[in-house]
Amino acid sequence: MSAIDTYSLSPAMGYARPWYIQGWMRTLPLPLLEFWSFGLKEAISCIFAVSFFITLALSKFLSLGGLPRYDFVLMVALVVQFALVYSGLEIKKELIAISLFHLLGLALEVFKTAPGIGSWSYPEFAYSKLFGVPLYSGFMYAAVGSYILQAWRHLSVRLTGYPSHLVVIILAAAIYINFFTHHFIGDYRWPLTLMLIAVFWHTKVHFKPIAREFWIPLPLAFLLIGFFIWIAENIVTLFGGW
User: Where are the membrane-spanning stretches (predicted)?
Assistant: First the structure.
C-alpha cells in the first residue's frame, strides 16, 4: 500500500480496527491516520505527566481550605495514578516500575535538598514530608517513567542497534554518580552527554502508530523527551508551583 492510498481497516490486513478510528475517518489517507493515531497515543501516554504538572502549576492559585499545598498535589497524583490503573490505561507491571521511579526520584530529591548541598528547597509546610522533601516530588520522576512505559506499550516500541548492556550500565552509573559528585568534584555532564550520544549513535527507536513502523534515532528521542520536560518545568516555575 502506498502512502496516499485510502486506508482500509479490513481484518485481512492483519490489524484490528482501532476504537478511535470510526465512520468517515476510515476513508482518510494512511499518513493522516497514522499521524492522528500517533498524536492520540502520545496524549494518552502523557495523561499522568500532564495532569501532575498542571496540578503543580495551578495549586498556587487554588483555595485549599487549610490543606497544605504539597499534600494536595500528592493526593491528586495518587488519585490519578489509581484511576489509570483502575481504568486499565496503566497495567500493574508499569505501576511497579513507576513506583521505583518515584523512590529513586525521592532519594535524589533528599540528597539535593540536604543542608550541605542546598540545590533547591521546599519551604512550605506539609504533613507528607520526608527529610524536608514532600512525597509528591518523587512523582516528577515517576511522570517521566509513566510516559515512557505507556508510550512503549501503546506504540509497540522496539529498539535496534542497541549497544552492549555492560557499556550502557557503566554509562548510566557514571551519569547518576555525577549527579551526586559534581557538588564535590568537577561536573562532567557534558562529556557524559557526548558519550551518551556516541554510545547510542546507531540505536533506533521503532514505533508503530497503527500499521506502519517508523523510526527515529535514540539520541533524538532523548533530546525530545528532555526538551518537553524542560518546557514543563519552566511552565511550573513561571506559575510559582515549586
Answer: 35-58, 70-89, 95-111, 131-152, 164-185, 214-232
**Torsion-angle region of residue 177: left (phi > 0), alpha (psi -120 to 50) or beta?**
alpha
**Is 172 part of any domain?**
no
Torsions phi, psi of 177, nearest 5? -60, -40
- Is residue 33 one of the residues assigned to a domain? yes
Q: Does residue 1 form part of some domain?
A: no
Euclidean distance between CA atoms 82 and 43, whole angstroms: 18
* DSSP category for residue 137: G
Q: Name the domain count of the chain.
A: 1
Tell me the three cell numbers of residue 79: 488519585
- Contact indicator for 69, 60 with CB cutoff of 8 Å: yes
On the question of pLDDT at 15 being above 80, the answer is no
Query: Domain for residue 168, yes or no?
Result: no
Nearest to 98 by CA among 112, 85, 113: 85
Cell of 122: 521546599
